[in-house]
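ESCALATION

Customer reports they have been waiting on this structure for their group meeting. Please prioritize. Original submission:
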Amino acid sequence: MKKLLLIITTVLIFNPGSINGQITLDTVINNTLGIGYGFKLVQISEDETKWYFADTSTNTFSLYNMDFTPFITNVAVPEPFLFSNGRMQVLYITRTLFNCDSSNIEYAYYSAANVGKPFRIMGIDGTLLFQLDSANGPFLYGATLGGSDVIRPIVNTSAGAKLFLQKYPLLNTFYVYSLCGTLPVDVFDFADFDQGIVKIYPNPSSGLLTFQINPPDNINEYELVIFDANAKEVRRETVGFWNSRFTIDVRNFSSGSYFYSLQTKNKPYQSGKFYLNK
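Update from on-call: job pushed to the front of the queue and completed.
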């Protein structure tokens, strides 16, 4: 089996730029393993921060101490990580959030976008602590354009930590669970989506135009509507996590300015402008 290779190197940095503050280079991580490897910080308890490496080629993840010595390595996940809008994710890696026995670290494993996947809570020893089929955590960008507020599946409340799940196909039906522990501050979360809801490239365009969309939530159905400079609708696309990236051929469109609106039936969420040069 292919093992996770972590290369820590001390290097001489030539011409590193001007540094006038108290900023010290700790180490340089040479990630030679390619796109299949994720790298983040996780907070497994209030006083324990670890480096997280996800190895999607072997379907494992590892945790390293802050000095990059191994803490836990090659933890097998229940099913493969996926490279898609419905990708599976490891999140909420903690000691006592789901099970107050601190001897076994635990984590949640699910897809924020794929409604057919289960929400699981696992111990790193492979123990299944909880599973709800066809479920995920609802989330929402609270500030439509800025994306400054995200509702996460787990939050601390005055009544303790709560887990919020929605189960399909019962849309708008939510399950609320009380948890054993408290969510550590800065715990690893799934909310690493880009803050921009709609990205367009290339802009301006002369041929093919790609829209990359992070829908504001995974509850509503969205539409992307395109208008010409005279406010005439020229294109309408349904947007969901299953087709949040699509390319349209604009070679038959006239040169000039165009506008788009990402909206539900009841509310516009983001508008913008792009240009076509022929």
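Sent to customer with the following note: The longest strand covers residues 37-45.
Escalation resolved.
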